[in-house]
Amino acid sequence: MSAGEASMGAWRMLRTNGPLRALFTARTVSYAGDSLSMVALMLHVANSTGQAIAVALLLLAGDFVPSLIAPLTGAIADRFDLKRVMIACDVAQGALVLLIALSLPPLPLLLVLVAVRAIAGQIFMPASRSAVPAMVPGAHLETANSVIGFGANTAEAAGPLIAAALLPFLGVQGVLVVDAASFFVSALVLTAVRAMPPVPDPDRDDATLLEQARSGLGYILRTRAIRIITLGFCAVVAFNGVDDVALVLLAKDTLHSGDSSVGLLLGAVGIGLLAGYALLTRYASKASMVTLLVGGFLVSSAGNFLTGFAWAVTAAFTVQAIRGLGIAGMDVGSSTLLQRTVPPAMLGRVFGNLYGTIGFAAAISYVGGGLLLDATSAPTTLIVAGGGGVLCTLVVAIFLPRALKAHPLPQAVDGLAASPPAPTDRQ
């Protein structure tokens, strides 16, 4: 099949596959709304408190707190009908954002509401990832993941621009109402998806939610291939998560450039991400997901390493844009591998724990990287971060292929299993 046919296949999939189109639309709409509301909330907190620590607490409430209950969020996805879980999460998020918009509560209550909303979003994530294998044949998973990733990241990139356009007319409260509406629209769109009841699981018959959450953690710890993917992804994030802070200091202190250059560097990865997802909608079906995952780890880490040697903003921008291609590969490669290698009854818990562990890894990177930045410089921090990520990538490249060959696969993975994937209760 030619590249053009592959590209047409990706978008034809959206036109002809109603459930996938609904999920694509729902995630795109809600991601756009969520992105613009975060800009509004950051401005509100900064203006009302005048404290940088308050903005930092807001970000922690949205990004870190949900990771504390990640095993439970994944267990919910495995225990209940995925359609109902996703709709309930969207309705809950819309109601919470609307409450914030109407009341603009004091900071302590605002942080609680933002954290609860983020928890609902954390439940939605593993449910939506687990739903993809129920919507498309196993051979098309990588293309479906690429298309959904492209839509979500396009919306996330556009969110701040939409916020900038709406804030002068609607104010903070108006923008938050728009975000709330986006979640309600997302929930309405998802009503078009057919029911996706949980896959029969012998361990779930008499198990409580906590017991299921514990079994999900146990599965990752005792299953070598899944453990390598999870720990490898989180190790790369733990080293490289500090790059946003380091890029600000690189532009201002090392390259002696202005605020516009800071925005340019921070936006470079987003540009690379969109290009990466666009390319993957065309070529992912031809690629090995193992190679895509390991290559994504390598490119994203090497990008930070090389940025540490950048002599000008243009050089740093170019490398960071290429780095974005690697992050897209990490996302599509990991999602597709897990969807093909994890038993359907366990898939939500694996995704839930993966995203939760990534949240912890990012927090570790912010703290450790911040200390390293204070002790050294932005170039040194980027070189250390990227170099550590490259070393982690080499470990994954050595051990993951062997682990996958020994893994009992419910579906074929990149030719490691010769037979086509057997249908499941969700397909």
From TrEMBL:
Primary location class: membrane
Keywords per UniProt: Cell membrane, Membrane, Transmembrane, Transmembrane helix, Transport
Chain ranges of the Major facilitator superfamily (MFS) profile domain: 175-427
Transmembrane domains' residue ranges: 20-46, 52-76, 96-120, 161-190, 224-242, 262-280, 292-314, 320-338, 350-373, 379-400
Cellular compartment(s): Cell membrane
Highest taxon above the source species: Bacteria
Stretches assigned to coiled coil: none
Membrane topology classification: Multi-pass membrane protein
PANTHER family per record: MACROLIDE-EFFLUX PROTEIN, MAJOR FACILITATOR SUPERFAMILY (MFS) PROFILE DOMAIN-CONTAINING PROTEIN
Name of the molecule in the record: MFS transporter
